Amino acid sequence: MISAIKERLAWGMLKKFGITKEVVEQKKADFLGWLAERGKIPHWSDFSAFARDWNAFLMDTKGETNIVDWIVGIIIAAILGVGVALPIVIDTVNNVMPNVSGITATVIGVIPVAVAITLLLVFLGR
Fold first, then answer.
1. CA-CA distance, 72 to 11, in Å (whole number)?
2. Do residues 50 and 80 make contact, with C-beta atoms less than 8 angstroms apart?
3. Mean pLDDT across the chain
4. Domains in the chain: how many in total?
Protein backbone atom coordinates (compact mmCIF):
# COMPACT_ATOMS: atom_id res chain seq x y z
CA MET A 1 0.00 0.00 0.00
CA ILE A 2 2.83 2.40 0.84
CA SER A 3 4.48 1.86 -2.54
CA ALA A 4 1.12 2.53 -4.27
CA ILE A 5 0.83 5.83 -2.40
CA LYS A 6 4.38 6.77 -3.34
CA GLU A 7 3.70 5.88 -6.96
CA ARG A 8 0.59 8.08 -6.98
CA LEU A 9 2.65 10.92 -5.51
CA ALA A 10 5.30 10.41 -8.19
CA TRP A 11 2.70 10.54 -10.97
CA GLY A 12 1.21 13.64 -9.33
CA MET A 13 4.64 15.27 -9.46
CA LEU A 14 4.95 14.40 -13.14
CA LYS A 15 1.54 15.91 -13.80
CA LYS A 16 2.62 19.07 -12.00
CA PHE A 17 5.53 19.43 -14.42
CA GLY A 18 3.29 18.70 -17.40
CA ILE A 19 4.79 15.28 -18.14
CA THR A 20 2.28 12.64 -19.22
CA LYS A 21 2.35 8.98 -18.29
CA GLU A 22 2.71 8.14 -21.98
CA VAL A 23 5.97 10.12 -22.17
CA VAL A 24 7.38 8.17 -19.22
CA GLU A 25 6.25 4.81 -20.63
CA GLN A 26 7.74 5.68 -24.05
CA LYS A 27 11.03 6.73 -22.46
CA LYS A 28 11.09 3.50 -20.43
CA ALA A 29 10.45 1.46 -23.60
CA ASP A 30 13.21 3.35 -25.43
CA PHE A 31 15.57 2.68 -22.52
CA LEU A 32 14.80 -1.06 -22.50
CA GLY A 33 15.28 -1.18 -26.29
CA TRP A 34 18.60 0.65 -25.95
CA LEU A 35 19.73 -1.87 -23.32
CA ALA A 36 18.66 -4.80 -25.52
CA GLU A 37 20.60 -3.42 -28.51
CA ARG A 38 23.74 -3.44 -26.40
CA GLY A 39 23.10 -6.89 -24.91
CA LYS A 40 22.69 -5.49 -21.40
CA ILE A 41 20.15 -6.49 -18.81
CA PRO A 42 18.35 -3.89 -16.68
CA HIS A 43 19.85 -3.46 -13.20
CA TRP A 44 16.62 -2.76 -11.33
CA SER A 45 18.04 -3.67 -7.93
CA ASP A 46 21.48 -2.05 -8.36
CA PHE A 47 20.76 1.66 -8.24
CA SER A 48 24.23 2.90 -9.18
CA ALA A 49 24.30 0.62 -12.25
CA PHE A 50 20.77 1.76 -13.17
CA ALA A 51 21.76 5.43 -12.88
CA ARG A 52 24.91 4.82 -14.94
CA ASP A 53 22.94 3.02 -17.68
CA TRP A 54 20.20 5.69 -17.62
CA ASN A 55 22.75 8.50 -18.01
CA ALA A 56 24.54 6.60 -20.80
CA PHE A 57 21.18 6.11 -22.55
CA LEU A 58 20.36 9.81 -22.31
CA MET A 59 23.81 10.85 -23.53
CA ASP A 60 23.69 8.34 -26.38
CA THR A 61 20.19 9.20 -27.57
CA LYS A 62 20.13 12.96 -27.14
CA GLY A 63 23.63 14.14 -26.38
CA GLU A 64 22.56 16.03 -23.29
CA THR A 65 20.25 15.66 -20.32
CA ASN A 66 17.42 18.14 -20.05
CA ILE A 67 15.22 18.79 -17.01
CA VAL A 68 12.39 16.55 -18.24
CA ASP A 69 14.73 13.57 -18.72
CA TRP A 70 16.24 14.26 -15.31
CA ILE A 71 12.82 14.30 -13.62
CA VAL A 72 11.71 11.18 -15.50
CA GLY A 73 14.90 9.41 -14.38
CA ILE A 74 14.26 10.35 -10.75
CA ILE A 75 10.64 9.17 -10.97
CA ILE A 76 11.62 5.84 -12.57
CA ALA A 77 14.38 5.32 -9.99
CA ALA A 78 11.93 6.13 -7.18
CA ILE A 79 9.25 3.77 -8.47
CA LEU A 80 11.69 0.94 -9.08
CA GLY A 81 13.82 1.55 -6.01
CA VAL A 82 11.19 2.21 -3.38
CA GLY A 83 8.43 0.12 -4.94
CA VAL A 84 10.42 -2.90 -6.15
CA ALA A 85 14.00 -3.28 -4.91
CA LEU A 86 13.63 -2.16 -1.29
CA PRO A 87 10.60 -4.39 -0.53
CA ILE A 88 12.38 -7.38 -2.11
CA VAL A 89 15.48 -6.78 0.03
CA ILE A 90 13.42 -6.33 3.20
CA ASP A 91 11.37 -9.46 2.49
CA THR A 92 14.50 -11.51 1.83
CA VAL A 93 16.15 -10.27 5.01
CA ASN A 94 13.02 -11.02 7.04
CA ASN A 95 12.95 -14.57 5.65
CA VAL A 96 16.62 -15.13 6.56
CA MET A 97 16.58 -13.53 10.03
CA PRO A 98 14.99 -16.45 11.96
CA ASN A 99 17.80 -18.74 10.81
CA VAL A 100 20.74 -16.58 11.96
CA SER A 101 21.93 -15.10 15.22
CA GLY A 102 24.69 -12.95 16.71
CA ILE A 103 26.93 -10.87 14.51
CA THR A 104 25.52 -12.43 11.35
CA ALA A 105 22.03 -11.21 12.28
CA THR A 106 23.41 -7.72 12.95
CA VAL A 107 25.18 -7.60 9.58
CA ILE A 108 22.12 -8.92 7.72
CA GLY A 109 19.93 -6.37 9.56
CA VAL A 110 22.04 -3.53 8.14
CA ILE A 111 21.51 -4.57 4.50
CA PRO A 112 18.12 -2.80 4.03
CA VAL A 113 19.59 0.37 5.52
CA ALA A 114 22.52 0.15 3.09
CA VAL A 115 20.11 -0.26 0.15
CA ALA A 116 18.07 2.73 1.33
CA ILE A 117 21.23 4.86 1.66
CA THR A 118 22.30 3.79 -1.84
CA LEU A 119 18.87 4.87 -3.15
CA LEU A 120 19.29 8.24 -1.43
CA LEU A 121 22.74 8.67 -2.97
CA VAL A 122 21.31 7.91 -6.43
CA PHE A 123 18.74 10.65 -5.90
CA LEU A 124 21.40 13.09 -4.73
CA GLY A 125 23.73 12.11 -7.56
CA ARG A 126 21.14 12.90 -10.21
1. 10
2. yes
3. 76
4. 1
Quote the CA–CA distance of 93 and 6 in Å, as a whole number.
Answer: 22
For 27-34, the CB contacts below 8 A with 24+ separation are 27/69, 27/72, 27/76, 28/76, 30/57, 30/61, 31/57, 34/60, 34/61
- pLDDT tens readout for residues 23-80: 777 777 787 888 888 887 776 666 677 777 777 777 776 655 677 777 877 788 778 7
Which residues span the domain enclosing 60?
2-125
**In sequence order, what are the residues at sequence separation of 6 or more whose Cβ sits closer than 8 angstroms to the Cβ of residue 30?**
57, 61
81: nearest Cα among 104, 107, 51: 51
Distance CA 50, CA 81 (A): 10
